[in-house]
Amino acid sequence: MAGKATIPGTGLIVVDMQVDFVTGSLAVPGATELLGPVNEIISLPFAYRVASKDFHPAGHISFATTHGKPLFETITIYPPEDLVAQTGGDITTIKERGLGQTLWPDHCVQGTRGAEIIPGLNVDDTFDIIPKGTHLGVECYSAFQDPWHLLRTDLEDKLHHHEVKDVYLVGLAGDYCVKATAIDAAKAGFSTFVVTDGVRSVSPGGKEYEEMKAAGVGIIDLVELKKRMQVA
User: Fold this and answer.
1) Can you give the pTM of this predicted structure?
2) Which residue from 14, 48, 88, 145 puts its CA 20 to 30 A from 156's CA?
3) Is residue 134 situated within a structural domain?
4) What is the pLDDT of residues 199-213, one digit of tens each?
């Protein structure tokens, strides 16, 4: 944060605060309430700040329209054979690696307004941007990697480069991309915290927080965050 003292070792990940997830085709309940709280969190003295973005090609595997199936139906998807081969994996085991995929409305398509960060969010040029879900045949909820670990973003490398030890997350959606990113951050060895004032979920109910806690993720509110960031 240029011009202000920052707290060494702290990093903020703003997850998928994009038009389609706030007011667009896949709007998360309560997402319109987040602008103020997330901007307040952004203003705190983090040493490093990064924002992730869903950035799908048209015809992405997560879209119901791609499969001609109803919205929110669950199908089984498999890792693309070419990616498995490129990463030295065994292509004969692909059919053993199926995962359930919820089919969503088209959202955050590259080159569309829906993929843009929401107006008024203070994500400026001091932020690094991490695009995810960019491969036609791979879903990627986590800002670190896809569930098959075939495609890694450079988020972990950037966090290490900036000597981040404590990672704080806000954004959308708590039960999908925030959860997946937080769990991967904890698995990577970062002390990881999700700030509930800056999160909304597709299906709120608290289960997502229990799953994150079980994975070693801390769940805190803005008051606790300010204490940790030494802000009154």
Assistant:
1) 0.95
2) 88
3) yes
4) 999 998 889 999 999
